[in-house]
User: Fold these one by one.
Assistant:
Number 1:
Amino acid sequence: MATDLSPRTQPLTYEDALHLLRRATLHPTHDGAMALVGKTPTEAARELLDRGTDPVLPAWASTPPDPNIMFSDAARRWPEMQQWWVDKLITEPSVRERMVLFWHNHFTSDYITVYYGQFSIRQNALQRTYALGDFADFSKKMVSDPAMLIFLNGNLSVKGNPNENFAREWFELFSLGVGNYTERDIVEAARAFTGWRISGLNGTYTAQLSDLGEKTIFGQTGPWTYEDVVRLTLAQPACARFLATKLLRTFVQYYPSDEAITALAAEITAKNFVIKPVLQTLLSSELFHDATVRGALIKAPADLVLGLATSLNYTTMQRDLVVSSMAKLNQELFYPPTVEGWKGHHAWITSSTFPSRQRFGENLVNGKTTDGTQIKDTSGKAITPDLVALVKKVCTAPNDPVAVVDALATYLLPVPITTEQRAVLKEILLQSRPDYEWTIDAAFAPTYLRLFLQAVVRMPEFQLM
Amino acid sequence: MDRRRFIARVGKTGLALATLPNIIGNVSVRALAGVDAQLQQLLEATDRILVLIQLPGGNDGLNTVVPFTDPVYYASRPTISIAAKDTLKITDTLGWHPALSGFRDLYNDGSMAVVQGVTYPNPDRSHFRGTDIWLTATDADVFAGTGWVGRYLETMAPDFPTTLPANPLAIQIGTSLSLGLLGNKGPMGVSFRDPDEFYRLVNSGVSEEVPSSDQGNTPAGNEVAFMRTIARSADVYAKVVKSAADKGTNTVTYPQTDLASKLKIVSQLISGGLSTRIYLVSYTGNTFDTHADQGGVNGQHARLLQQLGDAVSMFMQDMRKQGLADKVAGMTFSEFGRRVAENGSQGTDHGTAAPLFVFGNDVRGGQMFGKDPNLTELDDRGDLLMENDFHNVYASVLLQWFATQSSTAQSVLFKDFSKSALPLFKSAPVSVRETSSAPMLVQVSPNPASTMATVSFDAQQASAVTIEVHDMQGRLLHAQAASAADGRATIDVSALPPSTYVLTLRADRAVVNSILTVTR
């Protein structure tokens, strides 16, 4: 397979465009794909990378938290901020929103520990600001981000007896990966990260509280500050490789080749850790578009829930339902299980979550929640997907049952179906009727299409992207 | 009377097997059992259960088992130490954290052992790497994609996943699945939060199924195969688990905590007769990662310990009331202990060694394995040096509790720890190798077997060697002569129904027994 980052030049087919949308955004929609068909991979990537607007923060997010706030008042903000973000995720098909989710799972925090919704939602805003930006500047901002200061005890770390929680995770999870630093580096970096407290809505630096003495990090000695630690860390070859691996796991495949990691790390270094041009290269590369990586990734709950909702044109779905659907599959926004974030890939699939994913898909196709209640839109009105309209949109010959099977399979599955699967899917679509009785406007068509799509979303292949 | 319990009560007389209802009338097994404690243990071990309790985040060992006479402990922890008067005394120098009255009681009645200073050479202070090392049971510098439990269970189900055992081999209570339960062919266990919910999840879907595509050895093809295996386990086991849960019961009232509710389900399933060998329960999140405001007698860490002690002690009470305690053992583990000295935010940073707790009726309880922590000889980070290697604890579990052959334990743990295994269980095998003239059964492989099994032995001095297979009713099903010079023989088990058998090696007048499992 291709491991190089050279740009692919062939114009995008429909399947190529869906592949790009599944990976680069959370919106693999028919209209989205049609708009990209015929464009070069470079043009298509640029278009997706240029999208993205800032959502308006809720008013409460701009008021400093009251330290004496009652639990119920603090906790009220948590679902609000989850729905605030989901509203953006489900309406904006951009790389930027995909990268907000990426950084949310990189510089993690959880709302129980952070407690004050202001800090959690503002951390999300910071991740959005730097989603495609300069990783060095982003990291410096993260050191003093109030949610991070609380989550990893930076606000309690004192000169003379530092708390090494943040310093260790900075190296291990945020920049280099395990094995690429020493215990000494952690001790010294923890000293350099002292001096931060939270004041109002911001992390504030006080030189008197900070250990400004000589430190030796990666063998270099000086009166290093937190900014120096970031600089020295990014200069380590392991840093670009660490980020490259994470990006490849997100966009290409979970087990990237060493050549691919080396190539993308070189690109990250060449672009000075600015993410947007790196992704421009990656998303238009031969590597990204290689046939062997189709279906190589297991969908995160975000991909599954948002992907199916947008594919079925369900973008008005009640926001709390989107949040809870993901949470039931072990991805609750603003609440990753540990500082490592969601592990991803195989960790998503267990004997509990796999059937849960199937039930989620079947129910959504049926216009129901997992509890069997009718899905409502944001205004409270019941909604069901119009499957007949969907077929008319994605299939050029909607009265031909084989064409319908193929069009929906292509639309929803990342790998081609086999001859045997096509035969079974056709049987399910026709429910034992002869081919010639099928027309898209037949009275039985909506019911049969529902049974058919429920069978499709049950397939293991549907869990891939 | 429960079979296991019966064995335990009369086991010492050597009559146990002979008088079991389902072995009455058997001559050969009775005769064997009378003289062979190892066989008795092997038979008992076939339905033994291990409950693993994970304390994620790194439990602070020094505030769990407190060295209350050590001035360095108090000097290192000005704000979070536990005063001597507050500890629950264990020895003249050690005391439980006051929240651990549950552990104190188990220890005092002889059913809990403390293994001191557990870690491994060159310990890693990363949560995630550290956890992986404990779960995969590798050396610190070796990366493995399978867990020690998964590898052990794999030896019991060689045809997995083509053939699934009747009951899940392992169960994790929760919706994630631990690396520890992963084998080479995928997850060796199932996970669910609640048996009823699991059943509903699996069985409430529409029924029409599309066959999986064979994508071959492509990334997508491998992922489809991975999901098929898990989906099939879920399909098969949701019913099995539910019917065990429906049959099972709890006889005590558990505390209203996350951990206790998980152990309650474990108890219910054991009570319902599930033959699952290993259960894994864990606190949610990196709960024990007490970098700040750890607390002392009260506070964050105290609450976690209270939950632990109360849940475990209630679980053991439940098992005892139901006559099931003899077949259950439990063990806690955590990726590391914490630093000796507290940090500037009234907490502790990542450390190394910490005590680990093993409990059960068969545990050599009421004792400490290993010396008290030495707070003056520390490593360069100010962390405790290793007193016990966790691999030796795992080896005890495999060799003594599960009575695995040492060659199997060695393949599971990647190295031979049989010489250094701690004597944690009362029923440690009586080795026939101690008599030099006795034949030595080296290995039965594969075991479980489905068609052929090879028996390797060392009986150089013997003039005649016979291999016999008996069923659990004691009937002789198969006998064949073997050559002492060859030291190996192949036996055909393809006609035997899947079950557990006694394999007997006779060399002149000496006899060695082992367990042979047939699966298909």
Note: Chain B has 14 helices and 21 strands.
Number 2:
Amino acid sequence: MLKVLAIALNTFKEAVRNKVLYFLLIFALLIMGFSGVISDLSIAAPEKLIKDLGLAAIDFFGFLIAVFVGVYLVYTELDKRTIYTIVSKPIDRYQFILGKFFGLLITIYVNMLIMSIFFFAVLYFRDATDFDKVMKAIYREVAPGQFEPIGNPQIQYYLYHFKQFILAVGKGVATVFGYSEPITHHLMRVIGMSALGLAIITSFAILYSTFSTPTLSAVFTFLTWIIGSLCEDILRYAERLAQKAGGVENLVGPDLIKYWFAQVAMHIVPNLALFDKRMEAVYGPWEVSTPNIHNVPIDWVAVAYGLVYVAGVLCLASMIFNRRNFK
Amino acid sequence: MRRSILQTIVLFVLFVSFFATAVVIQHKNLEKVKLNPPFVETWMLSGRSGELLKVLALRYDLVAADFLWLRAIQSFGGRGMTNRDWKPVYNMFDTITELDPYFETAYTFGNMVIGDEGGRQREGLGLLNKGMFRLVRQYRIPFEGMYVAHWQMGDTNLARWYGRVAMKRQDAPNWVPRVVAYIEVKSGAYYIGFDRFVANYLQGLDANDLPMQQIALGKIQEAIDRWNEDYLIRAFDEYTSKTGSLPRQIEDLTSMPVLQEYEVARMSKFVAALEKRARAMNREYGIHPDLRKGLPEPSAEDLKMPLPADSLAKPGAKWEDLRNEIFRESLVKQSGIPEDPYGTRYVINQTFLGYPFGKKEDIIARESERNEFLKNLLAGIRTSIQERTQMLGKPPESLREVFYTDFNTTEPYGGAWQYDPRSGNFRSTSHPDL
Amino acid sequence: MKIIETRKLSKVYTHDFIDVEHGRLKFNFFRRTVALDGLDLEVGEGEIFGLLGPNGAGKSTTIKILMGIIFPTSGTARIMERPLGDKEVKAKIGFLPENPAFYDYLKGEEFLDYYGQLYGMPKAQRRKRIEELFDLVGLPDHAPNLPLKGYSKGMIQRIGLAQALLNDPQLVVLDEPQSGLDPLGRKEIRDIILRLKDQGKTVFFSSHILSDAELICDRVAIVNRGRLVAIGELSQLLSPKVKEYELVASGLSRESLDALEKHARKFIERERDVLMILEKEELVKEALRRIVAENAMLVSLTPRRETLEEYFIREVARTNAPREEVRS
């Protein structure tokens, strides 16, 4: 296990030197900052906009990191032939695969944490610099309905924003470690589920890179992600086929093949929609009414599914890697 | 060699068991998904754009909805305001609500754009119906539907149904039943309409959205105007049936029973209520300076009156929370001629009195309208005289020469017309300067 | 105990069906290349064993199979009497690949520490061992804190050797350890190998620099085109008898020079000096007689035996009969 950890940490060291990572990170942060700005344009629900964009950006850029950083990790070792000295060491090849997987996962998760902190900071800052709250902070009510500014309003205005900025960043960091306010209630759970979904994509990126070139691996990973996202739509497709024919038993010929193909496909492709709790984060779950605070219950079935699926894919990757000749 | 084969076998067994577990879980999950029917058939790729986008957006449909939403409200502020082509706007909101099925504001705002602005109430209601069955806990959408059915479509039965749905919703505030009860009241539609536009205006204030405030304010004026006219027309009917003659002055109607102790919304009261609360909430304005033109000035007395003790107007409060108290405070029980929400006064346009087919809506006019009417009338007659002068080579002898019939149109103010055959000048005695 | 033992070890590379070569698509219909063809080797404990052969002879393939980088098509190999891939055995092996490249973002020390962790060495032991190794392989003082990116080729070779020696291995496998090194560096590597032998370790290395191999190897195997050409101790492989004599003299008369030139294999005259290579003993005697008779000066007389290089060239040329590419 220590050896896996050593490989994982070295993989992390390698990944953080990849410039693509920083481009992606900066781009994601820009989008989140941008969401704070454009939320003012929306005449309703500015927080919804920030949440939608922020959570989607964390998920999507995590995925892009998995693709663009992940597919190179195994390949570089083969290409530079560092793998020669690695496999001659007293480790099993599956340990190498696990190390690479966890190294990439650490990279993605560290990035997701940074994005999350920024995202929470934007949410807190946007919330605290609401017009009314700013007014309340820089004016004092001397008599009912009468207000006078506290000090120089202009200076107080900027001071307040500066203070809130620092506070928002601080609270953002705290939120990642369990602190929460109504606007960020259970959001870490949503990001956590996103992270679990990304673990599946990461395992696929590793699997593909054990037997193909980076470009092909990236394409395969991308396709896996798309089909995984549409997993539940395949079900609709199959149902529609059956419905059109008036029942499964009436299906014939190519339609029957399509139906069974869809049946098989929807069972084996990773169901990424299961890890997508963003709707709940913005509106709360369908069943319960909790105004302003949106509970997101932990979906243990999805957690179990994710863990088992990742383990399965890693086994497959190890099997392929075990039989592989390195040229 | 044997060791590596053994390892492969172990890995294979692990792989199969892990994967089998995953498939079993997925199977259970799919069974569950099967029970929840999709909102629409997302696999009909040839269908409307919303369905296609839902698939194309992968799992980022919320973000796609947000961008379309921003786009929609932008186009509403700009092009959509002048171009009343409802179809693309309808498609846009349909798509947004398909991508983000629980986006409440998209339904109500969409209905406002399509129904109120675009004049497509049926389509607006369609959007509301879609949202009503998705957001099953919220009162706002059926409440909106009630307004559309009652105020815009005049369908009391439909309005009653929407009202009942709205009342039963979990988050319905206690004033909802009271507003719904207006459906049964005569002229209840005005209450419902006024309340709705007040809410829109307050939302506009909360969102700091000037175009939205402007539109809502216009709607409020229109609603109060229609409300007032309704009373005045009823008073007009009472006057004619009682006296057998037509009223010459609007003041003639003052003593009519229908204009005694009646309830109506008063614009100046509404303005005062807003301004007072703006001060209490430490806001810059209750009505934006750019929008104050054409509004009646609130009376000093109204402005002085302190806010009720239970008022929610505190710094940091949301305007929309004040919906109910502003609504209540804008209503007034009064006798006599109502106040004109456009800042002038109600008058009688005598031109239409003399007309056998004069509509009552035209007879009851506002000062500004009457003035405008006189100007238009003068301009029209003068053009006809000019044309005739060109034909004859000199001004016509009398107006009969111009219109080939006796000119007996009454002057709107009740004065007489003056025609000078020598110079061809045509004037009104009440406004000789025009 | 036999440290390395291979039995009929073969490796056939199957080409990818479609390959991109020089920017052009290339279709390989069932083309295969035999890299190793039934190799039998035995390496004993404490030996320095040289695996020699021209480029493409199968040296690297053999080493890759032994190190578990590739798998043999047929045949078996055992290291320390255990099958390949045994982790306990791997823990006792150090390996330096040909033209090694390492993680260029790591500092020298970090790199060795990482590999130390892969050997499962505890932290204190790693630190001590790494310090020793930097000395042993002769890396400069700033090397531990310099990222591998800044290492010269020679330094990379040295740190590669260091990582092979991290675990104090019983068997050190070196693939072309001296390539890319200057003469001084090659000498240092030779010294290290000899020191390892003194410590009782087995060294298995491949090389095409024969003079170096000749100096240190106990036994060599010569492979060509995937087949074993010769294997054995150097003294057995090379014939012990003198092959020719090199004679340098000064001041011989014209007449003698002409007489000797006719029989000499090589004859170089420069001013008064002359260098000749004579194959027969009688001719040497004749030359010496003339030197004495003419009171000329004998500068040097060297008997020359067969070198490994000459043997190698002879053997390789013998086995280089055209061989067909295997098709199926």
Note: The beta strands of chain A are 139-143, 146-149.
